[in-house]
Amino acid sequence: MGLEAARPPLSVAVIGHINHGKTALVRALTGIETDRLAEEKARGLSITLGFAWRDYPAGAVDLLDSPGHEDFIRAMVMGATGARAAMLVVSANEGFGRQTREHLRVAQLLGLRTGIVAVTKVDLLPDGAEAGVRARIAAELVGTFLASEPVVFCSAQTGAGLTALHDAIEALIERCPAADRAPGAILPLDRVFSVAGAGTVVTGTLQGGPLRAGAAAVLMPSDRPITLRQLQVHGETVEAAQPGGRVAVGLRGVSVDEVEPGELLCAPDALVPSLLVDVELTLSPESARALKSADEVRVMWGARQDLAKVRLMGDGALAPGARGLAQLRFATPVAAFAGQRAILRRPSPAETIGGALVLDPAAPRMRGPTDARRDLLAAVAAGDLAGIADLLAARDAGVVSASEAARLSRRPLDEIRAALGAFETLGADLVAAPAAVDSARSAYLVRLVEAHRTAPNRAWVRVAAIRGHLARTTPRELLDHVERRLAREREIRVNGGQVRLSSHDPLARLPPAALARLRELESQVRQGGVTPPDLGALATPGSEDAALVELLIDVGALVVLRNHALRQTLVFHAEALDEALSNLRAAFPPSAEFATGAARAALGTSRKFIVPILEFLDVRGDTLRDGDVRRIV
């Protein structure tokens, strides 16, 4: 049995300019060498994401050592993605460099809001220079998320200030805010390798929810199913890994060649691949030019990067330093989640131009005016669940998909259903605003009243005629719900594809003479029993009698059956069919089998009539046929 991971480690992105001492400082703090590659050791600089950790009384800290060279900005984004805080490393004798500023800007665009500034190489400062360095650093931090965070002077070579830095890190564990919501466990894969005896192993910073050994998962956006064979945190095998820290996962069901760094490991059904992602853009004030619709950008998110075309909502261009809503359009499916942050860079010349906050990871393609879409995305950006629900209802004629509301608001489905308790349930996923249900209910009744007024002597109205008119403005699921509710409340009666008001009496407006003739026709058919009169002799087509027979059929007094072998249409009285069943039950008690001929003899009728009668009783469920024999149910 493995160790159960307790409080999740705090992931801290270690960022800063090349050669400012990040790797040396991490080594001094943890005793772990994060430069793993021979090239890194030979060149004396990091080119991949390094990882080290240390346990403190308040909890564990994962330090993600990001390369400082501008050529490896993707690895820096990997380190900052999923981290909850940053440690900005600044050389005391060199001050802020170009990558110091870019790393700080990227970390802020990725949503980091807290951290520490570690001023290294203080052993190289002349006496009395510290105050000036501190002032220059404070000036550089103005307007950033580190402006009011602790600044610690230290040296990895002499050990000066490391105790104070340890204290600042432990205080950071206590005060760091909780991670943003995500739809379950999500692990962006930054490393993929094979270990003898363990098979395929992947690593990343876990977000959203816990992972458990033995659980099923999928890789996105390839949607490849996998099983989590083993989990490790800080080199220890665990049964469960909590979000927030680094995790190594042994995979079952996939070879190392079938997994790509940059994929997302997540719970089944947590994410849906999409070509369209709606985002809120923040363009950097340092961007060289405005961003326009149809511009191509490189999107860096998690451990992957993708090319996308930008479709701005509203203004034709987004100026440097401005914010706006846009749709990112990808050539191949991507997997993202609401609340995920990304960095945008121009492909050529390479330049970090801003960041993006994912609002809808499975967006519809924008066509025509975007005002309603912009209002919805504004509510998503504000985390306004009530506003999201109202705007979804307004968009879809009062119907809201609970799963869509959950996706956009970044809340669990159960929480969404509880929050939308006043809405009426239409199905497993759909709910409807009470006002929309009331409106659809009234519209259904009005349409049905109008249909009865137009044809007062008809007992039933085709359901399709009612729904076909309402379907222009009312979703099918809402019509289903309203129809079921009206039937349950006994406002209407539904019979197959027909519907009528329960209060509707098609005989009420018949003139006395017509009503008398109707009763006479009904009596003739009733008297015929199981050998009724011929329909053609009873009422010639187009005659008043034919209309009265049709009305008797509408109200259910008469039943039309078909003898397919003889190609004849027969009309029976409903009471005659019920009486036929009673006589068959008396002649053939349940469990007794009988053939068609025996039934014909028992009822005293002919084959012309017995075959459609028995077929009718079969359909109604009164008799059960088994080959050439039947029995009463």
Provide an overview of this structure:
This protein has 633 residues and is α+β, with helices and mostly antiparallel strands. It folds into six domains: 10-175, 3-Layer(aba) Sandwich (Rossmann fold); 186-266, Beta Barrel (Elongation Factor Tu (Ef-tu), domain 3); 274-372, Translation factors (Elongation Factor Tu (Ef-tu), domain 3); 383-432, no CATH class; 436-501, Arc Repressor Mutant, subunit A (Orthogonal Bundle); 513-632, Arc Repressor Mutant, subunit A (Orthogonal Bundle). It is built from 19 helices and 35 strands. Strands 7, 8, 9, 11, 12, 13, 15 and 16 form an eight-stranded antiparallel beta sheet that branches. A hairpin with a 2-residue loop joins strand 2 and strand 3. The longest helix has 21 residues, at 434-454. The radius of gyration is 37 Å and the shape is elongated.
Q: Quick recap of the structure?
A:
This protein has 633 residues and is α+β, with helices and mostly antiparallel strands.
- Overall CATH class of the largest domain: Alpha Beta
What level of helicity do the residues show? 25-40%
- Class by helix and strand content? alpha+beta
Sheet with most strands? 8 strands, antiparallel
Question: CATH-wise, what's the superfamily of the largest domain?
Answer: P-loop containing nucleotide triphosphate hydrolases
CATH architecture of the largest domain: 3-Layer(aba) Sandwich
Q: Give me the count of strands.
A: 35
Low-confidence stretches: 1-5, 35-48
Number of domains: 6
Shape: elongated
- Share in β-strands: 25-35%
Total of helices: 19
First CA to last CA: what distance? 58 Å
| Overall radius of gyration | 37 Å
User: How would you state the average pLDDT, rounded?
Assistant: 87
